[in-house]
UniProtKB/TrEMBL annotation:
Name of the protein in its database record: MerR family transcriptional regulator
InterPro entries reported for this sequence: DNA-bd_dom_put_sf, MerR-type_HTH_dom, MerR_fam
Matching PANTHER family: HTH MERR-TYPE DOMAIN-CONTAINING PROTEIN, REDOX-CYCLING DRUG-SENSING TRANSCRIPTIONAL ACTIVATOR SOXR
Superkingdom of origin organism: Bacteria
DNA-binding among keywords: yes
HTH merR-type domain location: 6-74
Alphabetical UniProt keywords: DNA-binding
Keyword DNA-binding: yes
A Pfam family matched in the record: MerR_1
Length: 213
């Protein structure tokens, strides 16, 4: 395991490519966590360095300091990745590790604390040190595509909550059907059939909806 590195203020500022004055300003604005104190000496570590580099990247992408502060606050109080993934993690979906600036880019400036809180409440997002984890690459790609089509992220997340409710009901229906006639051991093997039915029925439902005047 790599030894944990610590830096004094001047070294940290140099490594982050900022001035000591800027570092103090960021600390006063609570954009970075407080340092470890040893007497009158403040010690910073690699997490502080990663956060400073993230701030620089977000500023270069046009984000404001107020927006960055809100983003930092949301992630500092977010759900841990262990709570997000649970024991064993998802069986089919691929989790995605992101930096804060990558997440902000995915959502075109709509990664507000309110939207992040909603995504965390849904179980879409968790934190892993300085990184964010999204539970599903497919859901990340779809939600990002909808936002870039002009649909507000808040509305995408509200729709996702409704989809979650219907998906839970469908999962219960399929599970009950299988358990009435087979056993729990058959559920993993028959799982793809449930997904195929849902995809086909949704496709047909969209056809019907688009034919409506």
């Amino acid at each position: 395991m790599a030894e944990k590195r610590e830096y004094r203020m001047e070294e940290l500022a140099r490594l982050a490519g900022i001035t000591v004055r800027t570092l103090r300003f960021y600390r006063e604005r609570k954009l970075i966590p407080p340092p470890r104190r040893e007497g009158r000496i403040a010690w910073y570590d690699d997490h502080h360095l990663a956060r400073l580099r993230t701030i620089t990247a977000l500023l270069e992408r046009g984000h404001t300091l107020n927006g960055i502060a809100e983003l930092a606050e949301a992630f500092d109080h977010g759900r841990d990745v262990g709570d997000l993934l649970g024991v064993g993690g998802p069986t089919e979906e691929e989790p995605v590790h992101l930096t804060p600036e990558e997440l902000a880019d995915h959502y075109a400036g709509e990664a507000t604390p309110e939207n992040l809180a909603a995504a965390m409440e849904l179980g879409y997002l968790g934190t892993d040190g300085e990184e964010i984890v999204h539970i599903s690459r497919r859901l990340l790609d779809v939600s990002s595509a909808l936002v870039h089509e002009g649909i507000p992220l808040a509305e995408v997340l509200r729709a996702a909550q409704q989809v979650r409710t219907h998906a839970d009901a469908l999962a219960d229906l399929f599970t009950d059907l299988v358990l009435r006639h087979t056993s729990a051991q058959d559920l993993p093997r028959l799982r793809p059939l449930a997904r195929s039915v849902v995809e086909a029925e949704l496709s047909l439902a969209l056809d019907r909806r688009m034919r409506k005047p």
